[in-house]
Every structure is written in C-alpha cells, then in structure tokens.
Amino acid sequence: MKIKYITIIVNDMDESIRFYTEVMGFELDSQHNPIPRVTINLLKGEGDTMIELIKTAENEKGLFSVGIDVEDMESTLKDLKSKGANITMEPIPITVGTLTFLEDPNGVKIALIQHH
C-alpha cells in the first residue's frame, strides 16, 4: 500500500489553493465537481502523493482522511479484517475504481482505493 493523497475539507477554496501553491509550492493539478455544491481540487508536489482540497458544507473543516492505493481491494480487505481493522464502509464503486473506508484507533479515516 502507498499513500496516494491527503484530503482536507476547506472553508475557502481560493484561499486554500493560494496557500498550497504560493506558500507551500504545490501545483494545481485538476478540478472536479462530482456533485452539486462540492468542489475538489487536486494539488501535487514532489512524488506521487497529492493534496485533495474539498469544499463542501457536509463535513467538518480540517483533515478528513488519508487515501491509500491498493492493488487488490478484496484481498486487502480480507487481510485487514483478519487483523481486526475497523471497516467503517464496505467497498463501493466510484468513477476511478473502488473505495472503502476504515478507521485507525484514533478515529482517523483511511480511504482505500483500487483504481481501474
């Protein structure tokens, strides 16, 4: 498994993009509007890991989740469940593949994604 992205729910998208590009040195990669009133911007720096900024009224602001790429969702979940992982959402299809969530002992959300 490798970390693919960190998701942050933001108050002000423009201010957040300015901070991560002008102050932190990331580059704006892409923008998505998957559903009404939700805007997602992906920013990349060095390496493969990205920052995903999401503007939505549905979630509390701040760190939302850590996204991890997996090669085989079924076998990964089987292994994690056998080790006692707290799976909080069973796999669902998304536009780029399959997504599931689990939580660490501190309540940090971990998104597992198997891309097409």
Q: So how many helices?
A: 2
**Helix percentage:** 10-25%
Strand count: 8
What share of residues are in beta strands? over 45%
| Major beta-sheet overview | 8 strands, mixed
Break the fold down into its secondary structure elements and pairings:
Elements: E1 2-9, H1 13-23, E2 27-32, E3 39-44, E4 50-55, E5 62-69, H2 73-82, E6 86-94, E7 97-103, E8 109-115
Parallel strand pairs: 1-4, 5-8
Antiparallel strand pairs: 1-5, 2-3, 3-4, 6-7, 7-8
Q: How would you sum up this structure, described in words?
A:
This protein has 116 residues and is an alpha+beta fold. It has helices spanning 13-23, 73-82, and strands at 2-9, 27-32, 39-44, 50-55, 62-69, 86-94, 97-103, 109-115. It is 18% helix and 49% strand. It has an 8-stranded mixed sheet with strand order 2-3-4-1-5-8-7-6, covered by helices on one side. Strand 3 (39-44) and strand 4 form a beta hairpin. The longest helix is centred in the first third of the chain and has 11 residues, at 13-23.
Quick synopsis:
By secondary structure, the protein is of the alpha+beta class.
Summarize this structure as a short list of keywords or feature phrases.
116 residues, alpha+beta, 8-stranded mixed β-sheet, 49% strand
